[in-house]
C-alpha cells in the first residue's frame, strides 16, 4: 500500500518532505503535485522507477521523460542549450512548460529519446515541488500522471491513493494543484516547435 503524506501547500512540513525525499533515494515511485497537475516521480537513475512509470501509463520507448529541476543552474547540467534558446527558456521559467533539448552525458541513456538523444526538462512554480527538489538535491525523473484511456491527468491526491495504491509507494498531497499538463516546446532542432499546448502560454513561441 502507498504511504499517504498530507502537506501544507504554502509551508510544507520539512520532516514530511525529508521522509518523501528519503523514500525516493531508496528507489520509491511517488505521485506528487506540481503547478500543472500531478506527476509520477522517481530517482534519476532508477531503472525500476522508469519501468513502473511505463507500466502505469503504458508508454513506449519514444516517450520523453522529464527531469524536474530546481532551478536554471541545475537544468543546465543536463541539457545543451545555445544563447537564443537560453533566453527563451530562461524567460519562461519557473512555470508550466516542458522543454525538449539535446541531453548531456549527465543524463542516463535510458531516459533519452532513443534516436534524438533528447530529454524533457522543467522548472516548476510550485512550493511543495520546489521544497522536495531542494531536499532531494537532484532532478526528479517525472512523467505526467495521465492514465491510459483518460483525456485529463489526475488532480486529487486521495483519488490517486485509491486508484494506484498498489502501484506507487507514496502519494504527496498538498490540496488543489493545476489541472492541465505543461505546454511542451521542442527546441532540439534549434527552433521552437510546439508539441503540446497546455497550461503555459504559447504566444511567445509561435
Blueprint (SSEs and pairs):
Elements: E1 3-6, H1 14-25, E2 30-34, E3 37-42, H2 47-57, E4 66-68, H3 72-75, H4 83-90, E5 97-102, E6 118-122, H5 127-136, E7 140-144, H6 157-163, E8 170-173, E9 183-186, E10 193-196
Helix pairs in contact: 1-5
Total number of beta strands? 10
Over the alpha carbons, how many angstroms does the gyration radius reach? Answer: 16 Å
Strand order in the largest sheet: 1-8-2-3-7-4-6-5-9-10
Sheet with the most strands, sense and barrel status: 10 strands, mixed
Write the element-wise H/E pattern from the N-terminal end onward. EHEEHEHHEEHEHEEE
Mean of pLDDT = 93
Gross morphology: globular
The structural class is: alpha/beta
Q: What ranges have pLDDT less than 50 throughout 5 or more consecutive residues?
A: none
Strand content: 15-25%
First and last CA, distance: 45 Å
Helix run count? 6
The share of residues in helices is 25-40%
How would you describe this structure to a colleague?
The chain is of the alpha/beta class. It has 6 helices and 10 strands, in the order βαββαβααββαβαβββ. A 10-stranded mixed sheet has the order 1-8-2-3-7-4-6-5-9-10, with helices on both faces. Helix 1 (14-25) packs across helix 5 (127-136). InterPro entries: DHBP_synth_RibB-like_a/b_dom (IPR017945), Sua5-like_dom (IPR006070), SUA5_domain (IPR052532). Residues 14-200 form the YrdC-like domain.
Which terms would index this structure?
single chain; 206 residues; alpha/beta; ten-stranded mixed β-sheet; 25% helix; 22% strand; globular; DHBP_synth_RibB-like_a/b_dom; SUA5_domain
Amino acid at each position: 500500500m502507498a504511504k499517504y503524506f498530507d502537506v501544507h501547500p504554502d509551508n510544507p512540513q520539512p520532516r514530511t518532505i525529508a521522509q518523501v525525499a528519503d523514500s525516493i533515494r531508496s528507489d520509491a515511485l511517488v505521485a506528487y503535485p506540481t503547478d500543472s497537475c500531478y506527476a509520477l516521480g522517481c530517482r534519476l537513475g532508477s531503472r525500476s522507477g522508469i519501468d513502473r512509470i511505463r507500466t502505469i501509463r503504458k508508454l513506449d520507448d519514444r516517450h520523453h521523460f522529464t527531469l524536474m529541476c530546481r532551478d536554471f543552474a541545475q537544468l543546465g547540467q543536463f541539457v545543451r542549450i545555445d544563447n537564443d534558446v537560453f533566453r527563451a527558456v530562461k524567460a519562461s521559467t519557473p512555470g508550466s512548460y516542458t522543454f525538449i533539448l539535446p541531453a548531456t552525458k549527465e543524463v542516463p541513456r535510458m531516459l533519452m529519446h532513443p534516436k534524438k538523444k533528447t530529454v524533457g526538462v522543467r522548472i516548476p512554480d510550485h512550493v511543495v515541488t520546489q521544497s522536495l527538489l531542494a531536499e532531494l538535491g537532484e532532478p526528479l525523473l517525472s512523467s505526467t500522471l495521465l492514465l491510459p484511456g483518460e483525456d485529463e491527468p489526475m488532480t486529487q491526491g486521495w483519488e490517486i491513493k485509491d486508484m494506484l495504491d498498489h502501484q506507487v509507494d507514496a502519494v504527496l498531497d498538498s490540496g488543489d494543484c493545476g489541472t492541465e499538463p505543461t505546454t511542451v516546446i521542442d527546441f532540439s532542432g534549434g527552433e521552437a516547435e510546439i508539441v503540446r499546448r497546455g497550461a503555459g502560454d504559447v504566444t511567445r513561441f509561435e
